[in-house]
Amino acid sequence: MTKEAILGAIRRGLKRGPLPADQQAMLGGRLATHPRHLIPSRSRLPRPDQVALFIRNVEKEFGTVERVPNAEAVPAAIADYLAAQNLPSRFPMAPHPELTAIPWSERPLLEIEQRRAEATDQVSLQHGYAGIAETGTLMLPSAPERPTTLNLLAETEMVVLRASRIVGAYEEAWDRLRAESRDERSGGFMPRNIMFVTGPSRSADIEQTLELGAHGPRRLHIILIDDDPAALPMGEATAPPPVAVPGGPAAPGD
């Protein structure tokens, strides 16, 4: 069925014809300008407090976070986490350039496969597109380098997220996605799927008893790379050295 046929059926159901020109212009303007709704004041904080709020909200929703100074520290953090949780060291990883650039060879016991997740996988590693401080939520748009199955099939999902990708409110995450999702032919596009993940999967539908892993991962563990000096905790004497990552800002002097 064509788009016009679908819209025509909706109009007949509503017993009206096409919208008048003034209403079409109003809707077109709204779609073009993305007007703001009320934004909670709790996320309007200095950068260190904003990142701290993100971490608190993740932990409040039964997720865990480990901060590391740079990408080079990620393999050790993941190896230690898997060992502490008695989880296998073999897992699928999103084939994202920022993840493939990590020096995994420093931890040769980690068996990493760049692919989508399968039902038999116990652990997965995803690339974090953005973090939203106001609720401790991950924004995970689908892409060839960010397979959606990694968010759903494994019992334990690990996500590598840069601190510079944490924003205060949902509107800021949408702004970033719109700005970065561009191509010359269409002038802009949105991913086929966008998942918002707030902690591990859980449900209390049955007798109001909370059950983790009801329809997705039982654990959510975020490895947070402190690549934003402005977001370091108050009192930090020095910032970690900047590291250039594919698709991200270059280190000074590059």
UniProtKB/TrEMBL annotation:
Residues 245-254 have a biased composition (Low complexity). InterPro entries: FTHF_cligase-like_sf, LUD_dom, NagB/RpiA_transferase-like. Residues 232-254 are annotated as: Disordered. Residues 53-225 form the LUD domain. It comes from the Bacteria. It holds the Pfam family LUD_dom. This is Lactate utilization protein. It comes from Belnapia arida.
